[in-house]
Design brief:
Length: 148
Amino acid sequence: MQKVTHTKAARPAGRTRRRGQSAPASRMPRQEAVLNALFAAQDELNEGIAICDKGCVIIANEALSSLSGVARAKLMSGIRIAELFAGDDESRVRKALRAVSGAGTQLFEAEMFSSTREPFDVKVAVRGIAGSSHLLVSVRDISGRKQA
């Protein structure tokens, strides 16, 4: 009888994984579950998230709805993301959407319209999604920080 010296199961020969390598697909959560968890976490932080196709929102979280005062269903009906921004920032957002390619990112501050159509300060990140023509747009209210 052989004595067991540790409780971790040994990895099969030739199948070691180094730090930074991803887990096998069978152990990874479904993409939909990951997306739902990400959106829920961003909702708790009140950070608006939208996935856009050709500048139109196709997926949005509740936080973006709260920030913009636009119902989530209406956001996801194909509204142009740039329409949520005030004045010159609408064209600035359109330019950022065009400028991002591949996995590039555009970061900037802008003014977004609230539900009462009053502008407030936000930080915007527009990021390309690798291997896709879709873009991720993240919006965070910074008006409190700007007033301080």
